[in-house]
Amino acid sequence: MKNLINRYATFIKYIFSAGISFALDISLFTLFAYLLKFLIGSYAIIVATIFARIISSFINYHLNRNRVFKKVDDTSKIDKKTFSKYVVLVIVQMLVSSFTVYALYEATKIN
Fold it and tell me: What is the pLDDT of residues 7-19, one digit of tens each?
C-alpha cells in the first residue's frame, strides 16, 4: 500500500492542491458576487470571477510549485517561463468562465 501511495504521491498532492484552489475560488466568487451585486448589478458576476480567479490562481501556483512539484531551490524567485505560461492560461480560463457564467445568468434571468 505504501508503495502505491509513493507511486502516486505527486498526483494525490495535485488533486488536493486543485481542491483547495477550487474551494477558495468558489468561496471568493460567492463573497465578491454578493458584495458587488448591490453596486454593479449583474456585472458583479464578471468582476467577482476575475477577483476570485486572480487570488486563487496565485495560491494554486504557489502550492503546485512549492508543495506538489517541490521547486523549493529558491522560493523567492519565480520561474518566469512557467509563471508566464500559467498566467496566460489563467487569463484565458478566467475570461471564458466569467463571460460564460454571465451569459448563462442573463439567459436564465426571469423578467
Answer: 788 888 899 999 9
